[in-house]
Amino acid sequence: VAKHGMIVPFGQIGIEDAAARIREEARRSGFQLQEEAVDAMLEEAGPSWGILKGEIEKIRVFLNGRKTAGLDDVLACL
User: Fold this and answer.
1) Would you list the DSSP string of 18-52?
2) Cβ proximity of 23 and 37 under 8 Å
3) Whole-Å CA distances, 36 to 1, 4, 32, 56
4) What is the pLDDT of residue 29?
5) pLDDT tens digit at each of 78 positions of the chain
6) Least CB-packed of 32, 43, 77, 78 within 10 Å?
7) What's the CA gap between 39 and 11, in Å, rounded?
8) What whole-number distance in Å separates Cα of residue 78 and Cα of residue 73?
9) Within 10 Å of residue 41's Cβ, how many Cβ atoms?
10) How far is CA 49 from the centre of its chain?
11) Coil vs helix vs strand at 55
12) pTM of structure
């Protein structure tokens, strides 16, 4: 097992890692999140990636083609 195995952690990700992942997922989805918007998402949803990914998708739809999401946009979707 030691020769071929590996450890895969499945715990919650930290706040800083979650923030970086939020920014990257938003970028892949075609928009950018302002920093205060990222902070609000983490404050409301916590670092649970399943929840955050769903919130990013809601924001993408809400933006309707706009390329930047601010705090007001995020608060309207949370």
Assistant:
1) HHHHHHHHHHHTT-EE-HHHHHHHHHHHTT-HHHH
2) no
3) 45, 43, 12, 14
4) 96
5) 567 787 776 667 888 999 999 999 999 999 999 999 999 999 998 888 889 999 999 999 999 999 999 999 999 998
6) 43
7) 21
8) 9
9) 27
10) 7
11) helix
12) 0.81
Q: How far apart are CA 63 and CA 7, in angstroms?
A: 39
Tokens representing 40 are 């609000």
The amino acid occupying position 15 is I
Q: What was the pLDDT predicted at 1?
A: 56
Q: Which amino acid is present at 76?
A: A
Structure tokens at 7: 């450890």
71 burial (CB, 10 Å; 0-12 / 13-18 / 19+) is middle
